[in-house]
Amino acid sequence: MNKPKMATEKGVPSNSRVVMLLGQLEKMDGEVMLRDVETARLVTAKILHLIQTQEKSGKEVMSKGSSGMEVILSSLENSRDVQTTLNIMYILSELLTVGRGRRVGVFVSKGGTGVLFQILISASKELPPSEELMLQLHSLLAKVGPKDRKFGVKARLSGALNVTVDVMKQNLQNAKVLLPCLQVLRVYSNNSVNAISLGKTGMVEVMFKIVGPYSKKNTSLFKVALDALGALLKSKTNARRAVDSGHVPVLLALYLDWHRNDTRHRCMLIRKGLLVCLRNITNLKVGRRAFLEADGMRILYHSSTECLPVRTLDPLINTSSLIMRKCFPKNRLPVPTINSAFHFQLPQVPPGGAGDQLYSQLSGVDDVDESDDNEETEGETDTDNEEDKDQCNLNDDIETDLNKLHPDRNIGRPFEELKVYQKFFSELSEDFQGYSFDFSKSASTTSSSTYLFSSSSARFSRPAEVPTAQTPSPKQIPDSQNVCTSVKEHQTLSSPSLTSSQTPLDLDTIHLSKNKDQQEGINIPTPDRCTAPPSFSRSLSQGHMIEQELSHPLEGVSLEDKGNQNAEAGSEKVKHEGSPVNNLRHVQPPLLLGGFPVRRTGGGGSNVGSDCGSEGTEDEGGDAPLLEVPDTAQLLPLHDPDLYVEMVKGTQSVPQYAEVAYPDYFGHVAPMLKEPLLDRIYGVQRSKIFQDIERLIHPNDILDKVVYDIDHASPMIEENSESLKFNSQFESGNLRKAIQVRKYEYDLVLNADINSNHYHQWFYFEVSGMRVGTAYRFNIINCEKSNSQFNYGMQPLMYSVQEAISGKPHWVRTGTDICYYKNHFARSSVATGGQKGKSYYTLTFSVNFIHKEDVCYFAYHYPYTYSTLKMHLSKLEDMRTPQIYLRQDVLCETLSGNTCPLLTITAMPESKSSDHICQFRNRPFIFLSARVHPGETNASWVMKGTLEFLMGTSALAVNLREAYNFKIVPMLNPDGVVNGNHRCSLSGEDLNRQWQNPDPELHPTIYHTKGLLQYLAYIQRAPLVFCDYHGHSRKKNVFMYGCSVKETVWQSNISATSSDLQEDLGYRTLPKILSQIAPAFSMASSSFVVERSKESTARVVVWREIGVKRSYTMESTLCGCDQGKYKGLQISTRELEEMGAQFCLAMLRLKRLTSLRNHQNLLDLESDIIGTQSKSVSSCTTTYVLEEDEPSFLEAIDYSAESNDEDPEPESDLCGDVQENFDQLSDSETRHRN
Ligand SMILES: [Zn+2]
Q1: pLDDT tens digit string along 272-312?
Q2: Rounded to whole angstroms, how far apart are CA atoms 1088 and 1068?
Q3: How many Å lie between the centroid of ligand 1 and the Cα of residue 992?
Q4: Helix (H) or strand (E) holding 270
Q5: What residue spans of 715-778 are helical by DSSP H?
Q6: Among candidates 798, 506, 569, 524, which has minimal Cα distance to 661?
């Protein structure tokens, strides 16, 4: 056997006694040790004595460079004498007790654990085994176990598990030996395979024998035993065993006993240990059942309530609440079906999509299923480290297929087909020969408020025709003509003024006073209505309806059948046949026209109430008092209440909304005050959860009164009722049901996206009938995301009509006691198409209303409706100067017949000289889009900022227009926005997952937006930048996702040749510029990795198929910033709009770089901007950015605290490599942030 040489390094005195003795020990090889037992005992005893008495001796042995540990381990291996072995173990025990972390690390790295196991095995063969030796061995193992990542595996492979089990079984009454064994067992059991194997040897039963009722003796033994038991019970097999043996009531009784007797809270950890055992057992369905049968809810509820006053007992309360939440019987949502309350008849069923499932679903699939612990089989796998698992999942999604990583400019459609898009690029053939460039003269006549979609104007090209789909009927619109003619035409158009001062009390008057062209303009490309899907079928024939709408646009606005107008007296609701909801409403002026004044003067009489189901006879707007309209038009250049109403009239909604929400009508002005992120108050979540649990404990306290319900004829709200009144039947509204659960507490259910059964997160609803001086608690009980910025400082938004009228028309961040957590409502996995995550989440917040008789609105984020967009686009026309080339086209119609606007903004050529025309035509394209996800309203506010900047008069805006040609689709999903969807279009699909193969019928806006890009690619004019604006619900700041082969390859660790990695850094330039100029923008949050799950998003498809290197998703937070100038503040529309403007400025900077002809210079410059001189891969890569990256709070956020039935037991430890990779990433990220 090779023995290590005892080194005498510098710094270790050569005359040191301990070093001398170690040297002596080193010389005794195996045989000598056997022969000269006495010497071995003597030498080791002397070393022990020195180490026990002189601190420096230990230091010398463990000093860097010393081989003392090797000598000791080698001697331990060779020793066959119990006394010598014991001496050495005492030495180790002394050594490892001091400076524990590092010394144990050295011990483990020198293979010490293995030596100990080896001695354990051989000692167990002695009969009887030396008790002292077993004691010492386990004490040492207990010391090193937690520091050795492979401890569990080594123990099992060496056979040590069974030795420990045997020793324990023989020493159940011998606490001295039992304690270290339990300590070791606790470490063994953290390995899931060990836990299963130990369970088979009867360890669970043994543990239950050890833990006992309250006693002041042996508390440390109990504590360790409970830890070990808790670890064993993580295994489902073991947990089931414990349930089957009736241990759940035992644990509860023990817990209660300790709770009652441990009055001075000295044994908190034992109590916690008992709870952990219960927590692990209740991961199983049978465990939860046993818990409920044993009255566990009541026991834990009452004991926790008693613990509340003592802060140090928080861990007990937290664990208890976690168990109670898990065991709270799962309920289905209080709605007849989780499918959307509204249905839209699609031209075809999306294959394999969510809609498909809906159509093929059997009844009853909404039922909650708890079939969760079927998988009893537990794999023989090892993971000593649980953390590895998460990191594996983290990297799962990175694209590793190199073929997919290389942009593949496959345009995919023949040019013959793409030619239809030519008309959207008329500027490329425009020669301006008929146009007068005398700007100074014409400037004064340019203002016009002609609505941009007016079909009577020649400037508007028709919606794209889809060659493959049903061809729209031919239009009476002339083909797109050259722009200068149209511009002139535009200038000479008489512009009927929409006076904003007009009080909108009488919609009819306003409307009828307008000229007819204007009205038709509102009913956008009218003949196309013929192709509108049959969802508009009513009692009247479609043709008749269309005719009516054309001739009486007003009726179209109230969205009523002609015949219903007689129902104006409000005597009865007309229920729409075949519809689950009463989506026909009284004919009456929109809510805002009649309702509010009544409410203000009459007090009780509320039009809102009538809409909720009272018979509403009091709201005839006949001689309603004057409505005080806040003068938002002055504050908001792009806002015009009258125009807004006009726009609403042309908006098609599936529920056929007839009302207008006040905030959209009045407009929103960003308040000047700063709105800091809300500090999370410790214990909020807990108290909310306890209130929820009280529903089960004290069911008689619960009112359960439905106060709003779109699925059924809405309930009567009696006058003088103390219940709040709810309403959400307006554009972008989506409240489905409101249930008063306590006097001042309401459960709210959101409607699913249309033709879908989930995706709820966005909300927008109206509340009235409130009292002042009381905190109302609102619980939105069917949120779906697993976490939310509501846990990290975000507040919902509220708009008070009283405040608006008094001159403060603001959406403001409101609400206290906000938290977001998993609740006891669930849906079956069948209902969600096998999707995981069956539980819903509650967003809860409390509000103190400050005005009596107010009408308030709540929203997830600043609303921005489709009608708002149309109003803004119309007002944008007013900003046009003769120098601006602005064209607004209708790209296509949506499924429900709304138009999808397409904007072209650039500068007019300076003159009609061929040079100027040439420059005009050759400007690079910038392609922008937004709002594919309806719930991400912030994207629209950013887009508004961009559009206003682009239409501005600043020198920068002028330069920008002269530099680029902007093609903008400001709202990719109008239908989703109109109908209050969170994520989808009317097909029940996420449109941003359809870019690879958009269907012309089901996804027209995507199909045609992609068509525009394909056309550009075909004519070799692919845009310089593509950017799709989004909102992010789980992160702070504004940031970008881009596409880089290099960074993806680097992240995924796949092997790639250097040619795969040739990529210039251009994709980083724009985000880098943004991070320098836009305070809300964070480069550190940006990522350039191509993910598999995103392969059908706009960003990836435009990058891969259209070949746009700078293809981005720009994500704006819904919450606020944690860096830069706005750090600590919630984001408002001001910052969002500023972001949109900053994006424009960044484009201007980008232009300065890209206008350089010399490509190499360009790269260098970009490198400068990027801030890296080195082009090496590592210097320019970001990490794969996590979905969320919030710091932990004092109060652990319980959002994911739930039975982890779905999680399989850990599968393998193949995460090792990934782990390493991840470490590197973190390093590089740190570097990058610097
Ligand atoms: Zn999005």
Answers
A1: 999 999 999 999 999 999 999 999 999 999 999 999 888 89
A2: 8
A3: 8
A4: helix 268-281
A5: none
A6: 798
Q: Cα angle vertex 1126, ends 1124, 1129, to 5°?
A: 135
The order of strands in the sheet holding 1110-1117 is: 884-893, 899-907, 965-969, 925-930, 1025-1032, 1110-1117, 1038-1041
Residue that the structure tokens 């033709």 belong to: 755
Contact at 8 Å (CB) between 735 and 979?
no
pLDDT at position 663, please? 95
**Strand pairing category for 811-813 and 816-826:** unpaired
Of 74-83, 525-534, 1018-1027, the range with the highest mean pLDDT is 1018-1027
| Confidence label for 411 from pLDDT (cuts 50, 70 and 90) | confident
pLDDT digits (tens, 9 = 90+) for 137-179: 999 999 999 989 999 999 999 999 999 999 999 999 899 999 9
pLDDT value of residue 445: 36
Find the mean pLDDT for residues 1218-1226: 32
- Contact by Cβ (8 Å): 75, 1: no
How far is ligand 1, taken at its centre, from the CA of residue 397, in Å? 18
CA distance 1179 to 173: 62
pLDDT score, position 129? 81
Closest CA to 837 of 762, 761, 785, 759: 785
User: Given this model, what pLDDT does residue 1197 score?
Assistant: 54
Q: Which residues contact 648 (CB under 8 A, 6 or more apart)?
A: 557, 590, 660, 731, 867
Cα(1031) to centroid of ligand 1, in Å?
A: 5
> In terms of C-beta distances under 8 Å and separation of at least 24 residues, what long-range contacts does 207-214 make, across chains too?
207/232, 208/242, 208/245, 208/247, 208/250, 209/172, 210/172, 210/178, 210/182, 211/254, 211/274, 212/254, 213/254, 213/257, 213/258, 214/257, 214/258, 214/260, 214/261, 214/262, 214/267
Q: Is the peptide bond before 863 cis (omega within 30 degrees of 0)?
A: no
Ligand 1 centroid–CA 725 distance in Å is 32
Ligand 1 centroid–CA 1030 distance in Å is 4
**Quick one: the chain helix, strand, coil %, rounded to 5?**
45, 10, 45
- Parallel, antiparallel or unpaired: strands 745-750 and 725-727: unpaired
Point out the residues that are catalytic.
1115
Helix (H, G, I), strand (E, B) or coil at 855: strand
> Sorting pLDDT into bands at 50, 70 and 90, what band is 1217?
very low
Instruction: Tell me what the mean pLDDT of segment 447-458 comes to.
Output: 36
CA of 930 from ligand 1 middle (Å) equals 9
Q: How far is the CA of 476 from the centre of ligand 1 (A)?
A: 37
In single-letter form, the type of residue at position 1221 comes to N
| 981 CA to centre of ligand 1 in angstroms | 13
Say whether pTM exceeds 0.70: yes
Residue type, 936: E
pLDDT tens figures, 1135-1184:
999 999 999 999 999 988 766 544 444 444 555 554 443 333 333 344 45
Task: Encode 17-53 in three state secondary structure.
Answer: HHHHHHHHHHHCCHHHHHHCHHHHHHHHHHHHHHHHH
Task: Flag the least confident range among 46-55, 385-394, 533-542, 857-866.
Answer: 533-542
CA of 181 to the centre of ligand 1 (A): 54
Edge-to-edge strands of the sheet including 816-826? 705-709, 735-742, 745-750, 775-783, 839-848, 816-826
Residue 1087 β-bridge partners:
1041
- Two structure tokens written together for 24: 């002596």
Q: How far is the CA of 787 from the centre of ligand 1 (A)?
A: 16
